[in-house]
């Protein structure tokens, strides 16, 4: 019988260099696809700038009233009041600019994640081999610690907002894929057969029967995608992403409890507002009072 020390020595001698293999893969991709990564960086940077300009152009009260009206119609009076009070508190403590920056990062990351995730979810629901291949990949993406995504993102896109958005897309995409696929697969077979009996083709069935029926489940995926994007954008302050995450990170670094608390409160307000808006849209009745 081998003792523990001998077994450890044997395992150490035949240790798989997984970390070295992954580092070599990242280096190879970084040098081989340098032009493609630069193009992606420019495109994402442009989206971040344009979304930030769009959000920062109107005065604070205009943005706040727009959010209140949207919340009133989608989720009811209570959410509308909370949204107005919450945004007013953020503006009062001087974090409106950081909030706009954070929202521009969330919008960019969520938009790109959904543009990739929803079509992949549709394909996975329609073709079982694709679903079989995607499942272990999505499991890997969802269980990998969020901080790990920051390392290759920095190698590919350097420090700043772009690697933050890239890491956020990878981190937030799985729920959109899973719940889109689940929603389409849960559409009653009778509805699909009825559509086929009336002569609907593949696209008509998808856009007139399956997607409308699956909308609540897809909206749940969008909700989760937004929430994960918000959490990752805050973490991504470690690699140079500005916004509320940088406020929280600065408060932690300086042991400034007040600054960290104010940044955290702003994040909580934004998270609750976005959560209620997307939940209200996904439900047939929303959260109306």
Tell me what you see in this structure.
It is built from 13 helices and no strands. The model is unreliable at 281-289 (pLDDT under 50). It has 289 residues and is mainly alpha-helical. The chain has one domain (18-282): MetI-like (MetI-like fold), CATH 1.10.3720.10. 83% of the residues lie in helices and 0% in strands.
Indicate the CATH topology.
Answer: MetI-like fold
- Indicate how many domains the architecture comprises: 1
Shape from CA axes?
Answer: globular
- What would you call the structural class? mainly alpha
Task: Give keywords.
globular, 13 helices, mainly alpha, about 290 residues, MetI-like fold
Lay out the secondary structure.
Layout: H1 4-13, H2 18-32, H3 34-56, H4 60-75, H5 77-92, H6 96-126, H7 128-143, H8 150-157, H9 161-185, H10 189-197, H11 202-235, H12 244-253, H13 257-282
Helix pairs in contact: 3-6, 3-9, 4-5, 4-13, 5-13, 6-7, 6-9, 6-11, 7-9, 8-9, 9-11, 10-11, 11-13, 12-13
Brief sketch in words of this structure:
With 289 residues, this protein is mainly α. The chain is built from 13 helices and no strands.
């Amino acid at each position: 019988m081998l003792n523990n020390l001998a077994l450890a020595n044997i395992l150490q001698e035949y240790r798989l260099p997984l970390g070295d293999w992954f580092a070599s893969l990242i280096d190879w991709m970084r040098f081989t696809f340098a032009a493609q990564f630069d193009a992606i960086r420019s495109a994402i940077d442009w989206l971040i700038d344009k979304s930030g300009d769009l959000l920062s152009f109107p005065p604070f009260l205009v943005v706040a009233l727009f959010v209140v009206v949207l919340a009133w119609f989608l989720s009811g009076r209570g959410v509308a009041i909370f949204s107005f009070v919450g945004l007013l508190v953020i503006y009062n403590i001087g974090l409106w600019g950081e909030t706009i920056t954070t929202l521009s990062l969330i919008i960019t990351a969520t938009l790109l994640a959904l543009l990739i995730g929803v079509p992949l979810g549709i394909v996975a629901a329609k073709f079982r081999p694709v679903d079989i291949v995607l499942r272990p990949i999505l499991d890997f993406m969802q269980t990998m610690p969020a901080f790990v995504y920051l390392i290759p993102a920095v190698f590919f896109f350097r420090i700043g907002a772009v690697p933050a958005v890239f890491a956020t897309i990878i981190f937030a995409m799985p729920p959109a894929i899973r719940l889109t696929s689940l929603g389409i697969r849960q559409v009653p077979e009778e509805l699909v057969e009825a559509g086929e009996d009336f002569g609907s083709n593949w696209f008509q069935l998808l856009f007139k029967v399956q997607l409308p029926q699956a909308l609540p489940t897809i909206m749940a995926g969008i909700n989760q995608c937004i929430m994960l994007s918000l959490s990752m954008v805050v973490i991504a302050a470690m690699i140079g992403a500005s916004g509320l995450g940088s406020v929280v990170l600065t408060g932690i670094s300086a042991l400034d409890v007040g600054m960290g608390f104010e940044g955290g409160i702003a994040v909580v307000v934004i998270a609750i507002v976005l959560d209620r808006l997307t939940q209200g849209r996904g439900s047939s009745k929303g959260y109306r009072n």
